[in-house]
User: Which sequence fits this backbone?
């Protein structure tokens, strides 16, 4: 199957790429992540993925437009629903690119992380796939999360410490109250 793989970052791409290649799919990576903040983080993730893609000779489509303002406009006053909105933005764009490129399906590396809202990603992927006329290829990559971490460490990839948005950065680094 000719698949478009939405990629959030290099480390998260390692295991899904391994599985999809073993299944015999023709894969093209697609980097599109307007949620990542700050720009220096966006650039590190982009560079890490493009370096890895070059190393493994993965053809890619890169959307390197830094659209954090667009992302924030969609989220403001709906911060509690930010993950759903964020997944929708990225998966909708991936489905549009897949349709335009005559791909037989699309999927995402977001499905590898045990820290993401897996069922929500699946539901949104299915919905936008139906809407766009390109099937969402579902695979629970979480089973290989630890293997992917190991591969990324062996490859000496930059490994981020938060999902990517300003809210997840805050959740990761905010001071914790000390309980007595």
Assistant:
């Amino acid at each position: 199957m000719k698949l478009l793989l939405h990629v959030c970052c290099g480390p998260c791409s390692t295991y899904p790429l391994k599985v999809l290649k073993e299944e015999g799919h023709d894969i093209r990576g697609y980097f599109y992540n307007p949620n990542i903040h700050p720009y220096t983080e966006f650039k590190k993730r982009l560079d890490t993925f493009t370096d890895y893609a070059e190393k493994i000779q993965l053809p890619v489509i890169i959307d390197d437009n830094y659209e954090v303002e667009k992302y924030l406009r969609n989220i403001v006053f709906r911060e509690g629903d930010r993950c759903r909105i964020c997944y929708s933005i990225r998966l909708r764009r991936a489905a549009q690119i897949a349709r335009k490129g005559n791909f037989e399906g699309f999927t995402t590396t977001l499905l590898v992380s045990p820290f993401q809202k897996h069922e929500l990603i699946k539901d949104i992927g299915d919905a936008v796939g139906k809407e766009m006329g390109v099937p969402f290829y579902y695979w629970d990559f979480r089973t290989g999360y630890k293997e992917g971490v190991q591969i990324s460490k062996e490859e000496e990839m930059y490994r981020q410490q938060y999902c990517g948005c300003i809210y997840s950065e805050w959740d990761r680094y905010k001071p914790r109250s000390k309980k007595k």
